[in-house]
Amino acid sequence: MLPINYQYELSSLIYKTIDRANSAFSAFLHQQGYLAFGNKFRLFTFSRLSFDKHKVIRASGRIHHIGKEATFEISFLVDRASEEFIKGLFMDQVIVLGDKFSQVTYAVAGIYGLTPPEFKEVMTYRSISPLFIRQKRADGGEDYLQPSDKEFGNLLVRNLCSKTVAYASQREGEVAADLQILDFEFKALGKVYQNGVTIKQHSPYQTKLIGYLFEFELKVSPSLQEIGYYAGFGHLGSQGFGCVRVK
Which of 86, 120, 184, 228 has the most beta carbons within 10 angstroms of its beta carbon? Predict the structure, then answer.
């Protein structure tokens, strides 16, 4: 049995796994991240778990994993040369996933690299973890936007631009200028499913975030498509939001 809201715990496990192999890189991701315009970007994302056989027990907020295997996809915005290093971090690890009420122990049985897609100006994606877009209000609060909101696509693309600047600044040792969004089109396709995710459960810092699972078409430069694919589309990729597959 593991909690339905396991994304925060899975994110913490990823940090701990990196820390065991490279504590300096882990500390950088956790404390500093890649910086752009006063914001931190961790530049990785991951999907929800996919179970071979399971049952959701909503009354207790648990997932009963009846089978023996679970898989998930994880994506880092790193150079291709780092792929083997990333694989090595997770191979042969034992992962204990859960909260103070129930946990499941998994042994990592295999890690497989996915064939990179060909990035084009127009791409169609299916989200495999909820997309989360937030907008600050004048009173200091935040609104969680729906894909139908007018600003959703604009904020999604601006976030891609900020991630590009943060990544370039860290690699090149200089602060890059803001990127201008010259032309983009965003369109949600088909049914949109609301997905509320509670993070830091059973603590004073518990927060419920509202994301959305859906397919979408995005027209933007291939370089920004690549940033979104590897680092996540939208906000809080390192908390398990914005992971996609190419349709």
Answer: 228
